[in-house]
Every structure is written in C-alpha cells, then in structure tokens.
Amino acid sequence: MDPVHKAIGLSHSGWRGTVGKIGAVTVKKMQEEFGTDPKDILAAIGPSICQDCYEVSEDVILMFREAFEEKYWSQLFYGKENGKYQLNLWEVNHIIFREAGIPEGNISMPNICTCCNPEFLFSHRASHGMRGNLAAFLGIK
Ligand SMILES: [Zn+2]
User: Fold this and answer.
1) What's the gap in Å between 90 CA and the centre of ligand 1?
2) Which of 26, 28, 37, 132 has the most Cβ atoms closer than 10 angstroms to its Cβ?
3) Average confidence (pLDDT) over 106-132
C-alpha cells in the first residue's frame, strides 16, 4: 500500500513468482502507474507455507541460486540428507521487497503457515493434493 498516493497492489508469489521476483515487479508497476516511491510502501506477506513445511527439489534451488546473490543463500534454504531442500519463501520475498527499496520497518511478515494451520487455511501440501483454494482481497477504505 502506498498511503501517499492512496494506491494498492497485490500479487501472488508461489515459488515460480518468487524466483521471478513478482514482488519487485509489483513495486515497479506501482511506480509506473501511481508514481509510488518504494520508501512509502507498507508491504505485507500473506499467509503461506513456512520453511519447515516447504520441501523442494534441487532443480528449484538451482533457479534460486541463479536469481539471488550467494550472501542470501543460507537465509533462504538448506539441504538435507535426502537430497531435498527446505525453502523459505517468506524470507525470499522479504529480501525482494527490501531490494526493491521498501524500508525494513514497513514490511510485515506472515508468521502464519497455510500448511501448519489446515483447520482454517487451505494448503495444497497439507491436503495431499486434494484441490482447494485460497483467495486474497485488498481494498482501500
Ligand atoms: Zn508450516
């Protein structure tokens, strides 16, 4: 949200959107469309899967290694004995927002995992492939 221009932007960021830095694309679009200064943006990362729940294969990690500087890697993922990795999408998006110029204090982290809370949020992983949906709505009062 850009309180100066009374403008909002919302994007979905699964692993493909995250590796493509959709958060930064959204900030850039707000700059173009509304004249938003990233320093004014109040950003929030919505409920989504946490690192403990999010196991990915090496091909996904290779894309993240390409898209993000090595100094971030230890914050973003770790490898396990089974050859898989645990990926921290919350932290990746946090870094994307910071690199896009949003001040640290303006970024709210979710701390609500969809997979850890299947009783009130839908998670594709928690439901083992049973289809369902999550929707996000954003408006200006
Ligand atoms: Zn979780």
Assistant:
1) 11
2) 26
3) 81
